[in-house]
Amino acid sequence: MKSMKMWVLTATLICGTAAVTTACKKANVQNEELAQEPAQEELIPEAKEVVSTELIRTSQSWDGVALPDYLQGRPELVAVKYIFPAGKKLGWHHHPVINYGVLVQGELTIIGLDGKEKVVHEGEAVVEMVNTIHHGENRGTKDVILYMFYLSQEGEQLAVQHPEITLE
Questions:
Q1: pTM of the predicted model over 0.85
Q2: Quick check: 133 and 92 in contact, CB under 8 A?
Q3: Predicted confidence (pLDDT) per residue in 132-145, tens digit
Q4: Tell me, what DSSP letter sits at residue 60?
């Protein structure tokens, strides 16, 4: 069973990395078209060979808490693209499933209910808190684009909102 769990995680990381690389390339092309200016720095150089870069390997969320054991049963892998406009906040919520992602544009601040903060910078991977209430904020001047990957099961919520907790 452990080897199956490792296979699922490995497959998710490999597929997620490929999806993010493609998404990053698309985002860069769209940004260049919108700006109609040549890019000052090529973010994704043309590769002559396949290049693989491990972005993160961990068994803990960003706040140092150990991730829970996998759910039993058939997995449902979900990939979500989030766009946080500059200055916007996402309400308090928690995730009942393991999830991780890569920030492809901007800078996102994640704040736990205990006040602990994590700033995720462009190009960084992050493993989210599981079953811990938190929210995200874009304190920057440009939109944040974040790709998240959830290890879920059919019918499982990816996030549970907590509207009873007000944002400052």
A1: no
A2: yes
A3: 999 999 999 999 99
A4: B
